[in-house]
Every structure is written in structure tokens, then in C-alpha cells.
Amino acid sequence: METDRATFRPAHTGDRPAALHADTCIAAGFAPNLRLLGLDAHGRALDWMSWQDAACLYARDAVAWTLGAPCLELHGGTNRRSGLRSMLLLHPIIAARGHARPGVMGQTPALTNQALFARDQHLCLYCGRQFNRHALTRDHVLPVSKGGRDIWENVVTACVHCNSRKGSHTPQQADMPLLAVPYRPSWVEHLILSNRNILADQMAFLKAQLPRHPRSAG
Fold first, then answer.
1. Residue 94's beta-bridge partner residues?
2. Is the pLDDT of residue 10 over 70?
3. β 93-96/36-39 pair status
4. Using 50, 70 and 90 to split pLDDT, how confident is the model at 121?
5. What is the mean pLDDT of residues 36-58?
6. Domain boundaries, the chain
7. Direct distance between the N- and C-terminal alpha carbons of the chain, in angstroms, rounded to an integer
8. What number does CATH give the domain 113-166?
9. In the predicted model, what is the mean pLDDT of the chain?
10. Where are the alpha helices (DSSP H) in the chain?
11. Residue 5 to residue 67: CA distance in whole angstroms
């Protein structure tokens, strides 16, 4: 299971740091919001994890294999006998030991405003302008008052002004045509949309798991 830029690495059971602290020495270029991609035992993408959670997997010898060049270096305590300080290299993609989760790829991400705004790239799908999340709202294409449901296929991102203007009307009634058709993202699409700091190896891996026939835009 390799990507163009990722190298498969079996996990080793060598020395593990006895303790890792929040003030560990981090490799140059580390960003506090860096997240690592967690996979199940069969290589299916599960979710993003913090470097702290990833370090715990390494320390418990729960890593089956990894992909990509190390992206983070952690320094732990000093060995009393050798005088050497322990060091742990974390990889961008980590497969954990244990049971696989066969249904994860068909899982539907929870419909939250954060996930919705990410799906629509923080664009109002009525006026086409981009806003910060505090100026965005969830609009029901078919209003709830008219029987519309709170599901992915019936909600779009809308700015406060457009949502207020549309009110309890449909886009046709309000003469406000949608700029794109709302859709239910796959789990892999959700992972891509929910992380703005995806590393190259992670993106290559996730893109390889996207549907071969991309959905058509509205």
C-alpha cells in the first residue's frame, strides 16, 4: 500500500521512550495543529490523531506499520545507564494493530456546521462569496417548515444576509439559484475537508481512496 511519495515501513519494537512530555523537543517546522492519519489494521483511513495520541501508540507497541518519511521528532527522558535521551520519530500515516473496522469506508460523517462549511469551502452557495465561519449559517434548501430534512443533501452554506433574504422560501421562490448541488461527502472526502494542514504523503494516500468517478458539480 504505497503512494507516489510514501514509503512503507514495518513497525519496529526497539527502544521506546519511557515518558513524553508536552514540552518535548519538536523537529524544526513543527506546527501545533499538525495531525497524523490513523488507519485500521487493513489500511483503511479512520481519523486524524494528535501527535500525543500517536506517540502513545508507538509507546504501547501498537503500531503495525507506517507510511511516509518521519515528520515529527520527539525527545523523551534520559536513560540512567546509557546517559542517552530517548527519541521517537513519528510518521504521517500510522496503521494501528488490532481488529479492522470493515464499515468505516461507508461511514457517513456527522453533519456539523464545521463539516458543512468545509464541504462548501466557506463559500455562500447563493452569492458565491467567501466568509469566515462566524459569518456563515446552515441553510435548508427545502425549508424545514415545508418538510425539508436536516441532511447533507438538503443543506448548504449561506452567509447571514442570503439566509435572511431567502427566509422560508425555496431557492426558486426566492429567485436565488444554488451555485452547486449539495451532496453527502464520503468518509475520505470528510477527512480531506476537515484538515487544512494535510501533508503530501497523507493527501496522496487519501486521494488514492477517493471514488474513481468524481461527482459532477452542480
1. 38, 66
2. no
3. parallel
4. very high
5. 91
6. 8-105+188-208, 113-166
7. 34
8. 1.10.30.50
9. 82
10. 51-59, 113-119, 160-166, 187-193, 200-208
11. 9
How far apart, in whole angstroms, are the C-alpha atoms of residue 21 and residue 52?
9
pLDDT tens digits, one per residue of 79-112: 677 777 778 899 999 999 876 666 555 678 899 9
Nearest 10 degrees: Cα torsion 74, 78, 82, 84: 40
| Sequence-separated (6 or more) residues with CB below 8 Å from residue 64 | 10, 11, 41, 95, 96, 97
Classify each residue of 73-97 as buried b or exposed e, where b means 16 or more C-beta atoms within 10 Å of its C-beta.
Answer: ebbbeeeeeeeeebebebbbbbbbe
What's the rounded Cα separation, in Å, for the pair 95 and 97?
A: 7
Cell representation of residue 133 = 465561519
CA distances from 208 to 1, 213, 214 (A): 10, 12, 12
CA 204 to chain centre: 13
CB 167 within 8 A of CB 176: no
Going by pLDDT thresholds of 50, 70 and 90, the confidence category of residue 213 is low
Cell of 156: 448548504
Q: Are 141 and 156 in contact (CB under 8 A)?
A: yes
- Alpha-carbon torsion (46, 51, 52, 55), positive or negative: positive
Which grid cell sits at 134?
462566524
* pTM: predicted TM-score of the whole model, two decimal places: 0.68
Q: pLDDT tens digits for 154-194?
A: 999 999 999 999 999 999 999 999 999 999 999 999 999 88
Could you give the CA distance from residue 76 to residue 54 in angstroms, rounded to a whole number?
14
